[in-house]
Amino acid sequence: MTWVVAVTGASETERRPMPHSAAPVEVSVVLPCLNEAETIEICVRKALAGLAELGVAGEVLVSDNGSTDGSPALAAAAGAKVVHAAIRGYGGALINGIEAAQGRYVVMCDADDSYDLGNLGPFIAELRTGTDVVMGNRFKGGITPGAMPALHRYLGNPVLSWLGRLLFALSGVGDFHCGLRGFNRDRIRALGLCMTGMEFASELVIRAALAKYSISEVPTTLRPDGRSRPPHLRTWRDGWRHLRFLLVFAPKPTLLVPGLLVTLAGLLGTACLIPGERHAFGVSLDVGALVYSCLAVLVGAQLLIFGGFARLYGVQEGITREDKHARWTRWLSFERCVTAGLLIGLLGLANTVIAVTDWGHAGFSALNPRENLRTVVPSATAIALGVILIFSGLFASLLSLRPFVRGAATPHLARADPATATPADIPSQRPTVEASENSEV
Prior knowledge:
By secondary structure, the chain is an alpha/beta fold. The chain has helices spanning about 40-55, 70-80, 90-100, 120-130, 140, 150-170, 185-190, 200-210, 235-250, 250-275, 285-315, 335-360, 370-410; strands spanning about 5, 15, 25-35, 60-65, 80-85, 105-110, 135, 180-185, 215-220, 280, 285.
């Protein structure tokens, strides 16, 4: 049942069922919950009071993720609508809550009583102007001492937020991972968000930015949470998952461009040093520099291949869409990689045969290493690169097989185009390979 929040006195708030003739719900406050008995009731009451003070027709919806401490009953007693999320994880709970919400706008917030749920006015006001996503910024609003670990405050959040701004041109977002944010429900549903873990916070803002949604920020505060137990967030595990998610969505600047530059530098150095020693800027470059040039070729090729894998993974899992700039990843097919790998490997093997023949002509005695290495090192590099390409093609083909297996059983999982989708086109959410890794909100 949906509740209308109305102020009946100076300090009294009344919650009553909304009659059918009442105005539709404008704002849904969604709280993901996993064993939050210590704080869920106060969070619900603060949110209801905040909506009442603003005179907003709204609801508070708690998406429970399998609590065993009585949190759902406490939330319902406080006036919240409680729904149960079948998919475990922070993102799983939020996806379920967003689907169940009735409001035009959704404000999502952690249920640990660390955010000011009584001050939702700036978020709602910004949403009413037509902004698609409104992010909270704790660094602008104020962080109470002890509310955020020093590692998160001075390293984790600033670095990941900086990467987000750099990779996705989000110049107006200073706090990438604020747990309090609002958005237009239908616009976010059209994105087909699917990450079930903590990286859902990154997925929401990144996918919105890639879809050219309008994004703004408002200051918000953070204080120490009201729980006596440790938070669900795991610093290194969840930090890595956020970083991994950024790389999947931005392989070009993080992997492809560096890989291309390193590969070209290695090839240029190798080509210059195979004929003999070179002198530049008063420095002598010989077989030692040749070894490192060949190493650069291998490292650069690996970066390029991993960039292709990242792009393939994103497309095949349905979390990114293929575009004309990424069609080169089709060359990571098993057949093409095997062909290229065999050609490069056979070239290296042929040069190796030449080197062994020369050694035999010398009676298999000691050779001049400065001359011998000019043939052996590039040959070994070519053989190694050929093997890498062959097995990279095998791995890429395994990635490409996955969606066909899933799609045959679940054709409804196709994503809607954010630019053209209507609420009727918006697909239902699904668990991903991450679901088994996420046991906590």
